[in-house]
Each structure stands twice: as C-alpha cells, then as structure tokens.
Design brief:
Blueprint (H helix, E strand, L loop, with lengths): L31 E5 L6 E6 L9 E6 L4 E6 L6 E6 L9 E2 L9 E6 L8 E6 L6 E6 L2 E7 L9 E6 L8 E6 L6 E5 L5 E6 L9 E6 L8 E6 L6 E5 L7 E6 L9 E6 L8 E6 L6 E5 L5 E7 L9 E6 L8 E6 L13 E8 L6 H12 L4 E4 L1 H6 L1 H9 L3 E4 L12 H19 L6 E2 L8 H9 L3 E2 L4 E2 L9 H8 L7 E6 L3 H16 L3 E3 L6
Parallel strand pairs: 25-26, 25-31, 25-32, 26-27, 28-29, 30-31
Antiparallel strand pairs: 1-2, 1-24, 3-4, 4-5, 5-6, 7-8, 8-9, 9-10, 11-12, 12-13, 13-14, 15-16, 16-17, 17-18, 19-20, 20-21, 21-22, 23-24
Length: 530
C-alpha cells in the first residue's frame, strides 16, 4: 500500500565528491539491478533485467504486496514490463504496456488503487509518447487516461501513494522533458484531484515524482526533483489545499546540472520515510539518503562503477521483511529519446545571436518554412537583448548551445573567467527558455588549446568546431560567396557555420538548404549527429 518511488531527475555527487565523472566515462551499461541493504553497505541481490546487449537503462518499482520488483524498458526500448521476485528470479509474466513498436520506454509504478491489498501496475509512456497513463491488473488494462494535453510528446512519470487517507493509492504524475513542471494527482477513476507547479514555470527539463510519508502524519506526501537540464533540487509537499512545502534542498553541488531521480522509503524502521536520490546523466552513479528536512542521513554509495555517467534510478522495498526497506537501483535511461541521423548528415550551426535588419528573424522564418532544425551557439549578451527571439529558438525545436557571454578569446583569459563566461551565458539561457545549453560549446573565434579544453570539460561541456566556414563576417561577403563557402567540401558529417547578424547569410540560407538537400544530405542538430 505504501508506495514510494519514481522517477526522474538526476543528481550527482555529494558533499565530498567531484561534480562530474571522468572524461573517459561511459553513459551506457547493461541493465544491472542491484538491491542494497538499508545502510547502502552491501549488495544483497544483483541481476540483469534484460539481455546484456540491451543498454538503454530501465525504470523500476517494488510491489510491496507481492514482494516483487517491477521493471520497465528504458528510452529506446519497446514498452516491455517485466517482473522479478525479491531474489531476482524472472517471473515469466512480461507484457507490452503500449504498442510494441513504441520506442520511448515505459515508466512503472506498483499501486493499490482500489484498496484491496493487491497492487496493480501503473505505467506512463516514455519520451516521444503522449502523457498516457495506463493501469493493469493481471497484465490486462483496466484504466487509461492522459495526465496532460494528449498532444504533448515528452511522456509522463508516475508514482502512487495514499495522499488523502482513504485506503486507496492515488496516481501521481510528473511531466517529462519539454513540459512545464506540473504535478497532478488522480483518483481511481482517472480524475485529477490535486495539482501544483513544482518548480519555476519556465523549467522544461521534466520532473521526477515519488510518494511516501516523510513527515510521519499517516498520509503520503509527494517528493519531486528536477529531472534534467537543471540543478538537483528536491522539493516535498503535503497534498492539501495549502500545498504546504515540507522541505526544499539541493541534493548535489550547484555546479552539477544533470538533475536527480527520487524515491522514498523507511530505511531505518522509524515509521517515517526517508528521501533517496540517484545521480542523473553526467554525474557519477551516486545514491544518497536524506531525512525529510533535507539533512543528509549519512548514507551514500556509488551504485555502479564510478566512471559510469548515465544516471541511476533508486527505488525501495522491504525485500527481506525485516521492517526496513532496502534500496534498489537501476541504470537510468536517457531522459529524452534523441533520434540520431544515421547517414548523409549535415549540421547547420548559427552563431552569436545579434540581428542586422531582421537577419536573425529571417533565418528562423526560413528554417521554419523549410522544416529544418539548426543548432544555435548564442552569446549570453545577445540573449539578454532578444529574449523573445531566443525563446523562439527552443520553441521551434532548434538546439540552443553555448558561445560564452561576451566573445573573449579563451586562450587569453583565466580559468575563472572562462567558467564565468560559460556559466553566466547558461544561466541566462535557462532563465529565458528553461533549458540548459549543456553539453555543447563553441569557442569564440575557434581559439582553443589543451588548457581551455580541460576547463570546459570540467564544467560539463564539449567543444564543437566547424568544417565549412561561410566567411559571412568578412567585409564584402555576398550571398553567392556565402553559398560557395558554406557548401565547400560538403560531405557526411559536415558542420556549416553562419552568423545571425549576416544579411548575406540570411539571404543565402534558403539556397544553402536546397542545395544540401538536393545533394542527398539530411540536416541534423549537433545532438543528432553521430
């Protein structure tokens, strides 16, 4: 009956740990499920949820009525739900929660929504799916509804808890990436009965939701966290008309912006649930335990090898029935399903963010008409002057990346200045769009060396150069010269550079797009390039 977990957000490193994994880190691994003791000192059970070749992560929860572990395939996998007993033995009762060709993954929660003492399985569609929630009993659907606008394609995160003391679990949802940070609570008929905005309305990284009685009043509270593209803020609520905030705290250093996954569970047997966090993508796979007020409980562990940086999802369950809940972990799926361009791929990159006679706006109009997505490396200074235009970049599906704040030569400035330039620009981007510019950065003028590379990597960025410079910033640049230079050496993997303030490039853009496509190439954002 007591439910706790679910997903989303990421957290990383604790008080004494580095905020990012080593540069050699990997963000994929097999779906190794681990059950730790309540003190995070010993692995009690260890098994693979899917074949070793499946390396897309998994969602999970614990069925406290049957003492089983419920698994959902991660982003990029089919919507397969699997069950394992508390010893990690497969139960042989798999099913697909959605159409079997859906590849956004499936979020899972175990909930007693009718109060009969036997848990149902609640699922949420993953990335690229509509926010559809489904409830299954004996692998058969008994209820389904859309938690948010059915046209939203960021998916939905799910958990359950008896928030009103009526003896039934309510279904609790949080938006996936690209949606506003809205929590909703639904009754057993799929009717919304409570909602709140968990974080700033502009935040668009998705939210993780968990439920448990963290304040000991006998009713389930809601714990949520920023899922991605933001700091690892944790926030807990009482579900009442006042929407009382129980606590709000940062689970990991402010320099980490991978978010956090959350769960709840009574790991010490005192009758109150603790808050469990798991580091998100980009951080080491650290799991930590906190009391309801945000105080660290002195428990933490690296759930997997320290060089794994894909994120870790926690859950809890009393697997050995000793009155204390063990902590269960899974490698996290990607927060968003990014479809990679497979071949004949060209990235159009557009720098700076200033406008000359409407040149910037013209470029956006051309891209929209042509249905082409570009990557914009924008200066923080330019963002401040054109917030509506910057918002349009992300609203229309383009990728926003970092180009520093004021365009200094990075080889001539200090480490502190480099970090300030990048972080300030990222803060401005997040304040306007709700999205981080990580992990892509372009050096002003392309000036770089080993020292600068080490600095930007230490704060979570990687450098993106270009293969074809349009030379549109040169005096006398014309429409024809921009076209010629942009298409020079066109090949699979080309990265074209133009600037927002170039009227010549604004005039040439439509022709550049047409020639690239007519040559058999596909446009992709930097993130979509292999």
């Amino acid at each position: 009956m007591k439910n706790k977990i679910f997903l989303t957000l990421t957290l990383i490193l604790g008080l004494f740990l580095l905020p990012f994994s080593p540069l050699s880190a990997t963000d994929v691994m097999k779906t190794q499920i681990k059950v730790f003791d309540d003190n995070l000192r010993e692995v009690k059970i260890d098994f693979d949820a899917f074949p070793e070749s499946f390396r897309k992560g998994a969602y999970l929860d614990f069925d406290d009525s049957k003492k089983d572990i419920i698994i959902g395939a991660g982003t990029g996998g089919g919507p397969q739900v699997r069950g394992f007993d508390h010893n990690g033995q497969w139960l042989g009762q798999d099913f697909f929660a959605y159409q079997d060709n859906f590849r956004g993954g499936v979020k899972v929660a175990s909930c007693d929504i009718d109060g009969d003492g036997e848990n149902e399985i609640v699922t949420g569609a993953g990335s690229t799916g509509g926010p559809q929630v489904r409830v299954f009993r004996d692998r058969q659907p008994i209820l389904q509804f859309f938690a948010y606008n059915k046209n939203f394609r960021g998916g939905v995160n799910v958990t359950c808890g008896d928030t009103n003391g009526n003896g039934k679990d309510e279904i609790i949802t949080g938006t996936g990436p690209d949606g506003g940070p809205q929590i909703r609570v639904f009754n057993d008929q799929g009717q919304a009965i409570w909602q709140t905005m968990a974080f700033h309305p502009n935040y668009r990284g998705g939210i993780s939701v968990a439920s448990g009685d963290i304040d000991g009043d006998g009713q389930a509270d809601i714990v949520t966290s920023q899922l991605s593209e933001g700091q690892a803020w944790i926030k807990s609520y009482q579900v009442n008309d006042s929407k009382n905030v129980i606590s709000q705290f940062l689970a990991y250093p402010s320099s980490f912006e991978g978010g956090a996954y959350v769960a709840t569970g009574d790991t010490n047997g005192d009758g109150k649930d603790e808050i469990i966090t798991g580091a998100g993508e980009g951080g080491s796979p650290q799991v930590r335990v906190f009391y309801e007020n945000g105080q660290w409980a002195g428990k933490q562990v690296f759930a997997y090898n320290e060089d794994y940086s894909g994120g870790v999802i926690p859950a809890t369950g009393d697997t050995n029935q000793d009155g204390k809940e063990e902590i269960i972990t899974s490698p996290a799926p990607k927060a968003k399903l990014v479809k990679k361009c497979e071949r004949n791929c060209v990235a159009l990159t557009i720098d700076d963010g200033y406008s000359n006679g409407g040149s910037f706006e013209t470029m956006l109009d051309v891209l929209k008409r042509r249905k082409v997505k570009a990557t914009f490396f924008i200066l923080g200074d330019a963002m401040q002057g054109r917030p509506a235009t910057i918002k349009r970049i992300t609203d229309e599906g383009h990728q926003l990346a970092n180009h520093s704040y004021s365009h200094p030569s990075f080889t001539r400035i200090s480490e502190g200045r480099m970090k300030h330039e990048i972080n300030l620009s990222d803060d401005i981007a997040k304040s306007i769009t709700g999205k981080t510019t990580r992990p892509y950065f372009r050096y002003p003028g392309g000036a770089r060396n080993a020292r600068t590379d080490q600095v930007i990597q230490s704060i979570g960025y990687r450098h993106i150069h270009w293969t074809a410079d349009s030379y549109d910033s040169r005096q006398g640049a014309s429409r024809s010269s921009v076209i010629s230079h942009s298409l020079a050496g066109l090949r699979d993997g080309s990265i074209i550079l133009i600037h927002t303030q170039s009227r010549a490039s604004a005039s040439a853009l439509d022709e550049i797009i047409a020639r690239v496509q007519n040559a058999g190439y596909n446009f992709a954002t930097v993130q979509e390039m292999k």
